[in-house]
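Sat 14:20. Reprocessing the chain from the morning session after the first attempt stalled halfway. Input below, unchanged.
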Amino acid sequence: MSQMHQQTAGAAGSTCPGCEEPLEAGDLFCGACGYDLSAQPVGAADGGDHPTIAINGAAPEAPPAPRASDASSADWPVAPDVDSSDMPVPAHLPTDLPGTDSAGAELSVDAQVARAERPAEPDEYPLPAPGARPEPEPADPRTALPEPTPPAGTKLCVACRSGRVDPDGYCENCGHAQPRERDHMEQELGAVAAVSDRGLRHHRNEDAFAISSAALPDGSPAVVAIVCDGVSSATRPDEASLAASRAANESLLDALPRGTHPQQAMHDAILSASDAVNALAAEPTQAREHAPHQNAPACTLVGSIVAGGLLVVGWVGDSRAYWVPDDRSGPTVRLTEDDSWAAQMVAAGLMNEAEAYADERAHAITGWLGADAYELEPHTASFKPDRAGVVVVCTDGLWNYAEGVEEMARAVPADSAERPLHSAQVLVGHALDGGGHDNVTVAILPFRVMPQGAGSA
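Finished this time. Tokens:
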């Protein structure tokens, strides 16, 4: 029991809670009944806990009634009965409330007024949804500049539809690489059609073709198909094939209307193509210093002309031309001989064709167009077929999947003469279905028999 509790246990002038016997100051027990005065402080007899539920079946003890002496010990104010129906609402001024600033000093009247007039802060501040972007403020129509209209003929990005495409093939706005036009090309004239595709393994199309028609001096038509295959181990093979096909085609369109024999015109066209590829090697000295080990641009070439009842072919390299008759009653014939290691082995009698083309060196070419080629020897040949058919002019991207003449005959659709473009599409699809390991280019040139008959050229 603490000293403070002992001093407040008994007080002068108080009575025992148990028997109301007068107590003296400092009494710990009632002298009459022995009540423990320390168990309940004086003046707290009616403020303690009084059980309301019977314990052990006994009725709860009723709390003692308040005595008059207790009521008279506190002077409580009594609220008067006032009619408040017309009482004004109490007014509270900001200066009625004490306050201090952040330094602990009392607020001035002006500061307290400003604090009271400050609007209450909201309990919650709205937050934007995750990932939501604030809405941009609308532009002032008086100052906003109109979007510039690109000049006519400007190539726009296929992704963002607004950025211009730079010469390297990338969008200046979003940087998206654009599809290259040479990845897949198709062209059809009245009597000839060609299709070229990048294939499934190469990152670009290094093949090129050119098809055209011209009028001979007697007014009869001459139809031309040129196909070139860039040499992948050389520098810029795609540029070489494109330059060669265009140069050869232009040379033929110039020579045939002047009456030059088609076979001679083909020979001259191959020489023109060679000059165009050689010109690509004439690079500035600085370019050679940065890449001294690069080979000169190079490509192969095969072409065909149908004019005046003649079928003329010319080639350098391993691109090929096949003759496929419409009725398939006659034989399908390969019209060209490859400039390749395998062909040399077969010509020398060292291997048969199956053995030679099974060797890993089979496709190493021994003739091509380019500044570092051996002495150029254009091959040309002229034929007079005795029946209608088509000439298939193609790169090795096709004939690798139809190497034998029987395989090529089965791959060429029966209606190729009437639908040359469809036939070229089918043959390109045949190569892609076979694996598409290389670029593939096919030109279909129909041949119709002249009324006067046929003979050997």
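Residues 237-255 form the longest helix (19 residues).
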